[in-house]
Design brief:
The chain is of the alpha/beta class and 819 residues long. Among the domains are: 159 residues, Ribonuclease Inhibitor (Leucine-rich repeat, LRR (right-handed beta-alpha superhelix), Alpha-Beta Horseshoe), CATH 3.80.10.10; 173 residues, 3-Layer(aba) Sandwich (Rossmann fold). The chain is built from 16 helices and 36 strands. It has a 23-stranded mixed sheet, covered by helices on one side. β1 and β2 form a beta hairpin. α10 crosses α14. The longest helix has 43 residues. The N and C termini lie far apart (128 Å).
C-alpha cells in the first residue's frame, strides 16, 4: 500500500479546517437575530458569526451538512445548542475569542458528525473529560491553536468509548511544550491512524507516548522543536512495540547544512515506507546522503532547494516507486532520478519562464507510469523527446510554455491514459491529425487555457479512439463542430466552460456517448430547443453562471414544448448546479422560475396566439358568412345594388340647383297606390277624387294599370320607379297582410337612401293614408318608422272634414315648384 502524504495530508487538513470554499457559490440565505448573523451558502455550508453574538442561535436551521460558528462572542456552549443540527457531518468552532467552556452534552445528539474542529479559540483552556460523549461517528478531530498549556488539558476527553471511529487527530500549532507518556492513554485500543503536530511548540515527546496506539500509521512532527535524538527514541520504541508506522513527516525540520545520518539509519530499519522531507535544504543529493532504506517506496523532497541529484544518489532506495521533487531548482531531470523501479515522478515547478529550457531524458525509466513536468520551461517537444516511456499512463505538461509539438511526438506513448497540455499558447498550426498519433488508450485530454478559437480540422482527434473526457474550458471557442462529436464515439465528458459559445440551433449530441456536458460561464442568454433536446439525453449537465434571461419565450416555451418525461429530466439536471436568472426582478434559479411562471406564461402565450389569430379567424368567418349569404341571396343582392345605383342617381339630382319646376315627363304616374283588397271600395273613391278633379293626378293602381309578374320584387320595383310618389292606404287589414308589407317595403326602400348629411329626409315621395285606428302590436318596426317620418293623413268619416282631407292629399301628391 502506498501512503501518498501529498494527497492524504492536505485532504485531512481540508476536512478538519474547512467545509468548502465560497468560490462559485451563487445563492445564500441570511438570518439575523439577537446580534447573531447567520448565513447559508446553498449546497456548501452555513455559518453564524458576529462578536456581539453571545448565545448560540439555537433557532437557526439549515439543510446543509457543514456548519461553522466563527468570530462570535459566545462564552459557553451548552447542552441543546446543536439540537437543530443533528443532521450535520462537519462542525467548526473556530476563532471565537470569548469562548471559555464547552459543557458536557453539547455534542450528544450529533450522531452523524464525522469531522469536528475546535481551533483558534484563545481563551479555551481545557476540555471536560465527558465533552465528546456521543460522537460515535467522529472520524477526524482538530484541536489547533487553542489556550491549552498541556496535552492533558484536552487529552482526558479523548476516549475510545466516546469516539470509537476516530482515526485522525490534528494537533497543529499547539502551545504545549511536551507530550507526556500517558497523554494518549485513553486512546488505547482505538482506531487512530494519524497524528499531526505540525507547527506546534513541542520540544519533547516521551518515547512511550504512542505505544498505546497500535494502529498508528502516519506521524508528523514537522516544524516543531523536537530534536533528532528524541525522534530516534520515539522510532525505536515504535519499532519495539511493533507499531506498523508507515509515514513520517519531517517538513521544515531544520536540515540546512547537515544531513541527519543517524536518524536516516534508524528510519531505514523501521517499517516506514513514506518519508516526507519537504522544505529542508539539501542543495545537492549525493550518493552518501541516504543510507540503505529498503522499505521506503515514497520519498518526498519538495521545496528543498535541490539543484542536482547526482548519479546513483538514490541507489540506496532499491524499492523506490514514487519520487516528488516539486518546487526545487533543477533545470532538467537529473541523472540520479533514472531508477528502474520508479513509477511516479513529480518534478514540476523547477524552472521558470525566464530560465533556460528544461531538459530531460528517460533512460532506464521504463516502469514510469506517472510523470508531472508542469510549470517548467519546456518550449518544444520533438519526436524523440518522450522516448523510453512505454508504460507511462499519466503525463502533465500544464503551463510548460510549449510552442511546438512535432508530429508524432506522442506516438510511443501507447499506454498513456491521461494527458494535460493546458495553459500553453499553441499556434493554430499545431492542431493537425498527426498531433495525437499513437495515443490509442488515451482517456483524458486537457487543452484548457490554450487560447483555441477553432480547430482547423476536425480530424485532429480521430486517432483518440478511447478518449472519454475532453477538457476545453477557458478557451475562445464560439461553436462546437458537429464533426468533432462524431469523431470521438466513446467520449463521455465534454468540458467547454468559460468559452464564447453561442446557442446552437441544430442538435449536436445525436448518437454520441456524451453523458456529462459542462457549458458554464458562456454567454448563453437562453437555451434553444436543440440544446434542451441534447441535454435531455445526458446524465449530468452544468449550465451555471450563464447570463440567462428568464422570459416566457426564451425559457419556458422551449422547455414546455418537450414531453413531460424529458421536462422532468431536464429540470432535475438544471437543479443540480443552481443556474440563476440574471433578471433584476428575480434571483430565482431557472428551475424555480420555470415552476413558478409556467401557468402565467401559458396564459400569456394563449393570449398572444389569440391576439394574432383572432382577427384572422374573424375575417375568415366573415368571409365565409358573406360567401354563404351572397350565394343564397344573390337575387336580393342584385336588387340592393339596383337600389344603391338608384339612390346615387337621385342624390345627385337633389344636389342640383332647384331653379326649375319638377317635370312630370320624368314619370308616367304621379303616384303608385298600395292597398289591401279589403279597402278596395275606398281606393275606387280615392282614384275618382284624385283623377277627376284638379290637378287631375294620374295614379298607378294594381289590377287596372299593371299586373304582378313572375318576379314580385322586379315587378313592384318597375312600377314604383315609373311613379313620382308612393301612396299607402294603411288599415288593420293592410298591416296584417304580408304581401302589402312586402309591397310597401319595396316601394319605400328605394327612397330611404334619400337623406342629407345630417340624416334628415330630403324628399316627400312617400304619402300614407290611415283608415281608422290601427292595433300597435301589429305594426312592424319599419312601418312605425315610416308613419313617424313621412307624410301621414288621417281619413275622417265626418263629411264636413273630408273636403280638407282631399285638399291635403292633392297638395301632397301634386307636382310643385322647387325653391
Amino acid at each position: 500500500m502506498l501512503f501518498l502524504t501529498t494527497l492524504i495530508f492536505p485532504l485531512l487538513i481540508h476536512l478538519g479546517a474547512s467545509c468548502g470554499s465560497d468560490e462559485g457559490l451563487m445563492k445564500q440565505k441570511n438570518f439575523y437575530r439577537d446580534q447573531c448573523k447567520c448565513r447559508e451558502y446553498v449546497g456548501s455550508y452555513a455559518i453564524c458569526y458576529n462578536f456581539r453574538c453571545q448565545n448560540f442561535p439555537k433557532y437557526f436551521q439549515t439543510s446543509v451538512k457543514c456548519f461553522k460558528i466563527s468570530g462570535s462572542g459566545i462564552r459557553d456552549f451548552l447542552p441543546g445548542d446543536f439540537e437543530n443540527l443533528a443532521h450535520i457531518t462537519k462542525l467548526h468552532i473556530e476563532n471565537n475569542i470569548a469562548l471559555k467552556t464547552i459543557q458536557p452534552g453539547t455534542f450528544k445528539k450529533l450522531y452523524k458528525l464525522a469531522t469536528l474542529s475546535i481551533s483558534f479559540n484563545p481563551q479555551l483552556m481545557s476540555l471536560n473529560e465527558d465533552v465528546f460523549r456521543g460522537l460515535y461517528s467522529l472520524v477526524s478531530l482538530q484541536l489547533s491553536n487553542n489556550g491549552f498549556n498541556e496535552i492533558k488539558d484536552f487529552s482526558t476527553a479523548l476516549k475510545v468509548s466516546f469516539m470509537p471511529m476516530l482515526t485522525t487527530i490534528i494537533l497543529t500549532e499547539l502551545h504545549c511544550s511536551r507530550v507526556e507518556e500517558d497523554d494518549f492513554a485513553y486512546l488505547s485500543g482505538s482506531k487512530v491512524r494519524n497524528i499531526f503536530f505540525d507547527g506546534s511548540q513541542i520540544n519533547y515527546i516521551h518515547p512511550d507516548a504512542f505505544i498505546n496506539l497500535k494502529g498508528l500509521r502516519n506521524l508528523s512532527v514537522s516544524d516543531t522543536l523536537v530534536e533528532e535524538p528524541n525522534v530516534i527514541e520515539i522510532l525505536q520504541k515504535i519499532k519495539k512495540n511493533k507499531i506498523p508506522l508507515m509515514s513520517l513527516k519531517l517538513k521544515l525540520w531544520g536540515n540546512k547544512t547537515r544531513v541527519p545520518h543517524q536518524l536516516f539509519n534508524v528510519i531505514g530499519n523501521t517499517t516506514i515506507t513514506e518519508l516526507i522531507l519537504n522544505e529542508n535544504q539539501f542543495d545537492i543529493i549525493e550518493q552518501d546522503t541516504f543510507p540503505k532504506m529498503l522499505n521506503i517506496n515514497t520519498l518526498i523532497l519538495e521545496e528543498s532547494k535541490i539543484t542536482d541529484i547526482k548519479e546513483n544518489a538514490l541507489i540506496n532506495f532499491p524499492n523506490l516507486k514514487q519520487l516528488y521533487l516539486k518546487e526545487n531548482k533543477m533545470v532538467g531531470i537529473p541523472l540520479g532520478v533514472s531508477i528502474r523501479t520508479l513509477e511516479v515522478l513529480d518534478i514540476s515547478r523547477n524552472t521558470k519562464p525566464e530560465s533556460s529550457c528544461f531538459t530531460f531524458k528517460f533512460d532506464n525509466m521504463a516502469s514510469l507510469k506517472i510523470l508531472d513536468l508542469s510549470y517548467n520551461n519546456i518550449i518544444r517537444i520533438y519526436n524523440r523527446t518522450l522516448h523510453g516511456l512505454p508504460n507511462l499512463k499519466k503525463l502533465n505538461l500544464f503551463q510548460t510554455n510549449i510552442l511546438l509539438i512535432s508530429n508524432n511526438s506522442f506516438k510511443e506513448l501507447r499506454s498513456l491514459e491521461y494527458l494535460d497540455l493546458g495553459d500553453n499558447d499553441f499556434p493554430q498550426i499545431s492542431w493537425v491529425k498527426n498531433t495525437f498519433t499513437g495515443l490509442i488508450k488515451l482517456k483524458y485530454l486537457s487543452l484548457e487555457k490554450c487560447k483555441i478559437k477553432f480547430f482547423p480540422s476536425n480530424d485532429i482527434f480521430e486517432n483518440l479512439v478511447s478518449l472519454q473526457t475532453l477538457n476545453l474550458r477557458n478557451n475562445f471557442l464560439v461553436e462546437i463542430p458537429q464533426d468533432l462529436m462524431i469523431s470521438m464515439s466513446k467520449m463521455k465528458v465534454l468540458d467547454l466552460a468559460n468559452n464564447r459559445l453561442k446557442p446552437w440551433q441544430e442538435r449536436l449530441f445525436i448518437n454520441t456517448a456524451v453523458e456529462n456536458l459542462i457549458i458554464s460561464r458562456n454567454p448563453f442568454t437562453h437555451l434553444t430547443k436543440a440544446m434542451l433536446q441534447d441535454i435531455a439525453d445526458l446524465k449530468v449537465v452544468d449550465v451555471s453562471n450563464n447570463p440567462f434571461h428568464c422570459e416566457c419565450d426564451q425559457l419556458i416555451q422551449p422547455i414546455h414544448s418537450l414531453t413531460d418525461e424529458r421536462i422532468n429530466h431536464i429540470l432535475s439536471l438544471l437543479n443540480q448546479t443552481n443556474s440563476f436568472c440574471i433578471s433584476p426582478e428575480t434571483d430565482n434559479t431557472i428551475v424555480e422560475y420555470y415552476r413558478s411562471n409556467l401557468e402565467r406564461c401559458s396564459r400569456e402565450r394563449i393570449i398572444k396566439i389569440l391576439r394574432h389569430t383572432a382577427p384572422l379567424l374573424i375575417c375568415g368567418f366573415l368571409l365565409l358568412t358573406i360567401s354563404f349569404v351572397s350565394y343564397n341571396y344573390r337575387s336580393h343582392i342584385r336588387y340592393w345594388i339596383f337600389l344603391l345605383k338608384l339612390s346615387t342617381l337621385r342624390r345627385n339630382q337633389l344636389n342640383k340647383k332647384r331653379d326649375f319646376i319638377e317635370r312630370r315627363i320624368n314619370y308616367i304616374y304621379d303616384a303608385i297606390v298600395s292597398y289591401s283588397n279589403e279597402d278596395r271600395n275606398f281606393v275606387i273613391r280615392l282614384v275618382n277624387m284624385l283623377e277627376s278633379y284638379d290637378p287631375f293626378l294620374k295614379l298607378s293602381v294594381y289590377g287596372r294599370d299593371f299586373e304582378i309578374e313572375t318576379n314580385v320584387s322586379e315587378s313592384v320595383l318597375k312600377w314604383a320607379a315609373r311613379s313620382r310618389k308612393t301612396l299607402l292606404v294603411i288599415s288593420n287589414s293592410y298591416i296584417n297582410s304580408e304581401w302589402c308589407a312586402w309591397e310597401a317595403a319595396i316601394a319605400e326602400n328605394h327612397r330611404l337612401f334619400l337623406e342629407n348629411e345630417r340624416g334628415e329626409c330630403v324628399n316627400d315621395s312617400l304619402v300614407m293614408i290611415q283608415l281608422g285606428s290601427i292595433s300597435g302590436c301589429s305594426i312592424s318596426p319599419m312601418m312605425k318608422y315610416l308613419m313617424k317620418t313621412r307624410i301621414l293623413l288621417q281619413w275622417e268619416p265626418e263629411e264636413n272634414k273630408q273636403n280638407l282631407f282631399w285638399e291635403k292629399l292633392r297638395n301632397a301628391l301634386r307636382p310643385r315648384l322647387n325653391n
